[in-house]
Amino acid sequence: MKKIHFNKHWMAKAGVVFLLTALLASCDWIDTEYNIDPDAPGDVPMALLLPGIQQSIGFAVLGNDAARPTNIWMQYYDGVARQSYTQGRYQILPADVNNYWGTVYTDALINAKILLDKAEAEESPHNAGVAKVLIAFTLQIATDLFGDIPYTEALKGTDNVLQPVFDSQQSIYSTIFTLLDEAVGNLGAGDEPVGISGDVIYDGDADAWINAARALKARAELQLSKRNGSSAYSNALALTDAFGSIADDMLVPFEGANPNPINQFMVERGDVRMNQTFLDELEATGDPRIPFYFGEDNDGEISGSPTGQQDETASPPGSYLASQTSPIVMMSYAELKFIEAEAALQTGAGERAVEAYKAAVAASLEQVTGEVDADWMAANIDGENASTLTMEDIMMQKRAALVGQVQPFADWRRTGFPVLSLAPDATQTEIPRRYPYAQDEIIYNPDNIPAVGSVIVPVWWDQ
After folding, report:
1. DSSP character string of 212-269
2. Percentage helix, strand, coil, to 5, in the chain?
């Protein structure tokens, strides 16, 4: 018979474990709060969740890894060193967007879903409405960059699906419209027991959030103009009364300890300079926004780096774009008036298009410089009429107004304006039209990730 040997040291340890288990099971004298870290609470109130989500959207979803590469591709910036230089040659790899992909989901979408769940549990319709606006906004930024993305099987918390399916971009847009419509209903509810606290964008003003939801829906409707044609323009046009002035702009503020993301990037790395292409466009009319968009170059002047030329002596982004306290623009009155101008022009409402166009440019001047230069407007904008205003006029002025934002990349894909030349030494045959999927998704979710093939393949609405 085979002998069974017991190690006496193992037996001693087992006895101790058994004794401790029995004590823990039978005694109630142990303080169950003992191992809880008071600096890492397990439950965060909505008033603390909300500003963190807003700052994450402004800093990470919009202000850095989305705005910077796309502004290089749109030739607002020129990448002059390291990763920004390779991005300027259209070399953007799955590993390059890993952090961005994770931030979109973990810092923005999952936390916004937690906010929504808490709002519904506490029967707070206004906070639920704000959460839905933030989810819809983030979904649109992400799907416009990547195409199909996970949603219905994502954001499930403890029930999280580790390999979620990718929802089609078409279905994501349906979700965006639904969320924004629901948000308007939530925010219009008369019975709000909690109130919107911690809100760094609109300071808890539910009516302002309703206006923002409608403005964002106008943008989303217009984004589908290649797919939906005249209905996209008509749907967008019906929403362009959402904002009444630049006071309604949807801005994420930054200050001292939490600087603007481009400011932080320039201080820490400084790998971009303003592009000569954009400077040439503005100098053609002596645009008063130039000294606000362009900082001083190494000679104390304003200059641009030609696309792909890596001129590290050229002007860095200026005070409007890259001061410590420059806000990140989520949606603006100027953009909404440009949407109105385009939609009106495309639906034959020429006079309305002209008035919206003039208002949009004036709003941008006020937003950027603090005043409307009447002489410049008279010389360059005010002379337009219903028979002379063109789509290119609208899109080029919209381009000038939205520098530093992500939307111009979508507008270029939709309309073909501006007409841009391929960068020297380009690694692609065309300017990219999307981001690659993150490396982590390729490795850990291979059965669900769409087979796209290249960054020059258009997303669904771009076809």
Report:
1. HHHHHHHHHHHHTHHHHTHHHHHHHHTTTTS--SGGG-EEE--BTTB--HHHHHHHHT
2. 55, 5, 40
CATH placement of domain 46-258+326-418+433-446:
1.25.40.390
pTM beyond 0.85: the answer is yes
Residue 296, Ramachandran bin (φ over 0: left; ψ between -120 and 50: alpha; else beta)? beta
Residue-wise DSSP of 255-267: BTTB--HHHHHHH
Query: Taking Cα atoms as reference points, which of 196, 151, 147 lies closest to residue 178?
Result: 151
Each residue's pLDDT, cut to its tens digit, for the chain (463 residues) gives: 333 333 333 333 333 333 333 333 344 444 444 444 455 456 899 999 999 999 999 999 998 899 999 999 999 999 999 989 999 999 999 999 999 999 999 999 999 999 999 999 999 999 999 999 999 999 999 999 999 999 999 988 667 778 999 999 999 999 999 999 999 999 999 999 999 999 999 999 999 999 999 999 999 999 999 999 999 999 999 999 999 999 999 999 998 788 999 999 999 998 999 999 999 999 999 999 999 999 999 999 999 999 999 999 999 999 999 999 999 999 999 999 999 999 999 999 999 999 999 999 999 999 999 999 999 999 999 999 999 999 999 999 999 999 999 999 999 999 999 999 999 999 999 999 999 999 999 999 999 999 998 999 999 999 9
